[in-house]
UniProtKB/TrEMBL annotation:
Gly residues bias spans: 63-80
Protein name: Transcription regulator PadR N-terminal domain-containing protein
Composition bias, Basic residues: 15-39, 46-56
Residues of the Transcription regulator PadR N-terminal domain: 99-167
Signal peptide residue numbers: none
UniProt-annotated stretches for the region Disordered: 12-80
Amino acid sequence: MSPFSFIAAVQRAAGGRRAHDHRGHCQHHGRHGNAHPHAPHPDHHGGRHHDHHPRHASAGGDWFSGGAHGRGDADGFGGDGRGFTRSRKVSSDDLQLMLLGLLEQNPSHGYELIKALGALSNGFYTPSPGMVYPALTYLEELGYATVEQEGAKKRYHLAEPGKAHLDANRERLMLMFNKLKHVARKMDYMRQAWSGQPRETGPEGEDTRTGWLPEFVEARQALKRALLDRTDASPAEQRRIAGILARATDEINGKSGA
């Protein structure tokens, strides 16, 4: 299943479950100017919206980029898998892009987008209304999204400028959604391991919940361990390892003849 087919399925599931507090979300959105301290303010400075838009990540970096300079661990999830739940910060730019990606699949209410992101990541990343509604207001101000009023609620639609922005950032968006999908599967895999119950397997021996083969998981873990063992490697050894990893990356990407 492609990332966007998976997202559409998640959105349909999320749309079928109405959050019990969605009225509060809608009220929050209608009063974003004073309901949340970080909501965007009206533009008084010649369109300099960025001056008012909240930043959802600290100066130390965010979950997608890793560290302050965009350097994360090998897979962006805390190395050995036990630490990936310790940091769930997502920058405002990343959140906006993901919201546009979801709107490309289905026009949605704000609380439906919140539920969709939570479902996509298996609960790992569920942004708060105080993050999502100001971001949606900002996208509307930019002209990236349009709003359809439905009584007290607002349904957001992707606008043409938003589609152009998505097209220009498609690879980045795919990476973010794939990270959310990966961490959702990783959480399922680890919960099953901690439960002590035998795994249900498919015809190829894959775990039926995640689709992962045992040898695939073991190979990833072995690579991480091997790299940790070489943390004090000399420059010459680092170059040798970098060459091995570059060749492996090419093979994984189908570029073995390059």
